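Lecture 7 notes: from sequence to structure.

We start with a single chain of 191 residues. Read the sequence below before looking at the structure.
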Amino acid sequence: MDKKKKEKNFEDELQTADNLAEDATKEQNIKEKEAESGEEDSENTDNVSEELAKLNDSYLRLMAEYDNYRKRTIKEKAELIKTGSEKALVGLLPVIDDFERAIKTVETATDLSAVKEGILLIYSKFMNYLQQNGVKAIESLGQIFDPEMNEAVATIPATDEEQKGKIIDSIQTGYTLYDKVIRHAKVVVAN
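Now the structure, written as tokens:
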């Protein structure tokens, strides 16, 4: 937001400099015509020329400053795009480490319940990481079908009137990212 304000200020200053330069040019043209007709002396023309040179210099400096600002912001945006996913990926590395340890343990494990418990712990750790980053599972089972959140892949006859229009099975879990659906839940709806 601050960058947009700075950019707007630069644009305003550029417009002001453009207007001043244009006014000075018009004034110089008028002065030159008057000087040609002998109404003004050469001293006023020199003053106008100096003022025009100052305004032109100011305008060129402002243009250069704005151009540098624009290039810098483009470079910053490119850098953000390039490394923006770094934080997310670094947070996933411990989960990958846990999966690698689980794979090694599965090869030599004799206690199936311990392996199952370890995998559930890894799943829980991963789901906590997703929640910390704004990803939430869509709770759909038993809810009224909402096409904004769910995708009906099948319908079956309802066993009673209360079940009609409700989701009775979830085939694939859907997810939201900060209240925006990133994957719709695939569900079975009672009709």
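The beta strands are 135-137, 150-156, 167-172, 175-177, 180-183, 185-190. Keep this in mind for problem set 3.
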